[in-house]
Model the fold of this input.
Amino acid sequence: MWIFDRWGNLVFHCDVLDLPQAAPCVWDGKVVRGGMNLSGGSGVTVQEDVYVWKVHLKNILKDEHTYVGTVTVIR
Done:
């Protein structure tokens, strides 16, 4: 899973390879300086804005899918 700000800067990235054994990706609304935050890491809370998310996954039949959408952060 990737999350980008409106300028295309990466604010979060997470890889999960062995579900259900591995913990899922969870974005806590924070970004680490330098642009990468690995699953729940500490960082600076993002400002209110619209962010773009992208998820690439493989289902149980081994078919690959990519989904893209937006999330709005409000306080």
